[in-house]
Write a structure and sequence with these properties.
- The protein folds into 6 domains: 59 residues, Helix hairpin bin (Helix Hairpins, Orthogonal Bundle); 236 residues, DNA ligase/mRNA capping enzyme (D-amino Acid Aminotransferase, Chain A, domain 1, 2-Layer Sandwich), CATH 3.30.470.30; 98 residues, Nucleic acid-binding proteins (OB fold (Dihydrolipoamide Acetyltransferase, E2P)), CATH 2.40.50; 74 residues, DNA polymerase, domain 1 (Orthogonal Bundle), CATH 1.10.150; 71 residues, Orthogonal Bundle (DNA polymerase, domain 1); 78 residues, Rossmann fold.
- By secondary structure, it is of the alpha+beta class.
- Strands 14, 15, 16, 18, 19, 21 and 22 form a 7-stranded antiparallel beta sheet that branches.
- The site of 8-hydroxy-2-methylquinoline-6-carboxamide has 12 residues, from strand 3 and strand 8.
């Protein structure tokens, strides 16, 4: 054996200390200070050193224990069958290595293709492992993994999780069944939990796994009950039953039959090449899944073969986890820049040292607003944990305070707009700061024009974002109205613009003059007025003038228009600059057919307010609402003196009583269906 140089011994001790520190933060406190990828790297480095200098290994090495320590505040449960962990493969070569070892041990030929091993493949959920014991079909206890041989009794907590059966269902219920599985928090639940934590001014969780583990460790099970946790079963510990499935997949199917949630992507595939293909397929699906997965688990499917293979230390020889690219990585915050949006909203954007995370290279992350910066306690120069999961934009999940450099700088939020120097204002109770420059601000002009030209608005083909920026930067145009005055020569003078594209663009701008009231309204970019609201406004008012003059009260009469939108609409049309842009556009020839409200014979219910209550058996509520709106009625959710007609389905309650008290006409579902059939379109 090699002797250990002093430098290696020092490095080894440092690594051990650091890893033990990470372990404590991660397993005991549920508050990791570095991403898993960093932890994995350090652990691999440690294993490498231990592989080379065996004499160094001590009992306190993180490699000598898998998992965390059982907390004393919960009582302990000894696992009769140890809870195993999984060895990792980080690439195809390591996966092939795994298969070679399996075949070697089973005396299978590595060249004869007829001697294929069948593997059960499944996504590896990123949550917290649990063991659930059932006697004669009833849940006896639930335990965490702990260190694999002793865990914590979290029975009260697991009982609150809806996907954990309290009593097994189906046939052939085993006398004794210990189910192993993963408790996890779907991404949507995680986002909700963190949003609630932010509004309560509390600390957020870094990722769904920490949130799940933290939720399970609550001494008050009411807190656990309030968290949208789920449980998915993936294997079996103790087992006493007359029926014995022969494969892992068969066992999972039996578990499914007894009422456990089983991952729908489980497949049994022959040979490691098919497993690599499965990995590729799941990598492609990963972002679309509603929960985080951090890899694929492959298990020798035959339980008899699993038995023959056995396990080493804490991991089975018959299974391996092929890891995905990490969804969290550590990198440095180089700078924070401030972007100005269409409505003047100032968004801080983090410029990062590029880092590969969740399968892509990330060099920017949004910081949402000033509160987010304060909440994170972020400084320029900090090491940060970037999380990118699902289709969403990368987020800064946490600052690694331990790694803050001496020269880290506080982030100064601008008091003047970085583009037009107008003052930045933040309305009472609003998280967003805005540039007060309005259409004086170059950034707001650019965004307004991009929005105006976009497909669902005026649909000006060939007027892309880059061109808009160029036109505004070169002072060729100052507002959307200027688009209609553009001359081909002005465009050709711009770099990169050929004569042909200039002519095409002018033609597209010309074609956009013929539009609809709804599209035009949407194109104006009134705050909070999306496509649907624009359509509603057009249908209700029929033409532009009454919209520009509508009061908040009048607007509130309209279904789907709330007080905030109403205020934005009124403010927009009170602004003389906006009115003069609208006039200029109309003078330039932008036009649309007005909607003749008086002759809307197809809308016999115009001016009426209907309320639907109770269930419906022959028509869905959504469809009933659509039909009524098509007929011109407003569909309200509560009964008042203004209600014209109530439709009461089976089970109608207080709304029906109120309608009867107010002597409002009521029809039942059968009458309603006949009524609809009588309406001719
Ligand atoms: O989804 C998981 N996190 C997962 C973990 C799935 C499995 O089939 C596992 C596991 C840990 C150990 N199987 C073992 C044996």
């Amino acid at each position: 054996m090699e002797t250990t140089p002093d430098s290696v011994a020092i490095l080894y001790q440092q690594l051990k200390d650091e890893l033990n520190q990470h372990n404590h933060r991660y397993y005991v406190l549920d508050d990791p200070s570095v991403p898993d990828s960093e932890y994995d790297r350090q652990l691999r480095k440690l294993s490498e050193i231990e592989g080379r200098y065996e004499g160094l290994i001590t009992d306190d090495s993180p490699s000598q224990r898998v998992g965390g320590i059982a907390l004393e505040s919960f009582s302990q449960i000894k696992h009769a069958v140890p809870m195993l962990s999984l060895d990792n493969a980080f690439n195809d070569v390591e996966l092939q290595e795994f298969e070679r070892k399996v075949k070697d041990r089973l005396n299978y030929s590595t060249s004869d293709k007829s001697q294929q091993i069948e593997y059960a493949c499944e996504p590896k959920l990123d949550g917290a492992a649990v063991s659930l014991l059932y006697k004669k079909g009833s849940l006896v206890y639930g335990a965490t993994r702990g260190d694999g041989s002793v865990g914590e009794d979290i029975t009260a907590n697991v009982r609150t999780i809806k996907s954990v059966p309290l009593k097994l269902q189906g046939d052939n219920i085993p006398e004794l069944l210990e189910v192993r599985g993963e408790i996890y928090l779907p991404r949507a639940g995680f986002d909700r939990l963190n949003a609630a934590a932010i509004s309560a001014g509390e600390k957020t969780f870094v990722n769904p796994r920490n949130a799940a583990a933290g939720s399970l460790r609550q001494l008050d099970s009411k807190i656990t009950a309030s968290r949208p946790l789920e449980m998915c079963a993936y294997s079996v510990g103790q087992y006493k039953s007359d029926i014995k499935p022969e494969t892992h997949k068969g066992m999972l199917e039996a578990l499914g039959g007894w009422g456990f949630k089983i991952n729908p992507f489980v497949e049994a595939l022959a040979g490691i090449a098919a497993c690599e293909d499965y990995y590729q397929r799941m990598v492609e699906q990963r972002d679309q899944l509603p929960y985080d997965i951090d890899g694929i688990v492959y298990k020798v499917n035959s339980l008899k073969l699993q038995n023959r293979l056995g396990f080493v230390a804490k991991a089975p020889r018959w299974a391996i986890a092929r890891k995905f690219p990490a969804q969290e990585e550590m990198t440095r915050l180089l700078d924070v820049e401030f972007q100005v949006g269409r409505t003047g909203a100032i968004t801080p954007v983090a410029r990062l040292e590029p880092v590969f995370v969740g399968g892509v290279t990330v060099s920017n992350a949004t910081l949402h607003n000033r509160d987010e910066i304060d909440r994170l306690g972020l400084r320029i120069g900090d090491m940060v944990i970037i999380r990118r999961a699902g289709d969403v934009i990368p987020q800064i999940a946490k600052v690694v305070v331990e790694k803050r450099p001496l020269e880290a700088r506080l982030i100064e939020f601008p008091i003047r707009c970085p583009v037009c120097q107008s003052s930045v204002q933040r309305a009472e109770g609003e998280a967003v700061a805005r540039c007060s420059g309005g259409l004086f601000c170059g950034a707001q002009i650019k965004e307004a024009i991009k929005h105006f030209a976009s497909r669902k608005a005026m649909d000006i083909d060939g007027l892309g974002d880059k061109l808009v920026e160029l036109l505004v930067d070169k002072s060729v145009i100052f507002s959307v109205a200027d688009l209609y005055e553009l001359q081909p020569t002005q465009l050709v003078d711009l770099e990169r613009m050929a004569e042909k594209s200039a002519t095409n663009l002018i033609a597209a701008i010309d074609a956009s003059k013929e539009t609809t009231l709804a599209k035009f309204l949407y194109a104006l970019g009134v705050r909070e007025v999306g496509e649907a609201t624009a359509q509603t406004l057009a249908n209700n008012f029929g033409s532009m003038e009454p919209i520009t003059q509508a009061s908040v009260e009048v607007l509130l009469e309209i279904d789907d228009v709330g007080p905030i939108v109403a205020k934005h609409i009124v403010n927009f049309f009170r602004n003389p600059d906006n009115l003069s842009i609208i006039s200029a556009l109309r003078e330039a020839g932008v036009h649309w057919p007005d909607i003749d409200l008086s002759s809307q014979a197809s809308q016999p219910l115009r001016g009426q307010t209907w309320v639907i209550t109770g269930g419906m058996e022959t028509i869905s509520r959504a469809e009933a609402k659509d039909r009524l709106q098509d007929l011109g009625a407003k569909v309200a959710s509560s009964v008042s003196a203004k209600t014209t007609q109530v439709v009461a389905g089976p089970g109608a309650g207080s709304k029906l009583s109120k309608a009867l008290a107010l002597e409002i006409a009521v029809m039942d579902e059968a009458q309603f269906v006949v009524f609809l059939a009588d309406q001719t379109y």
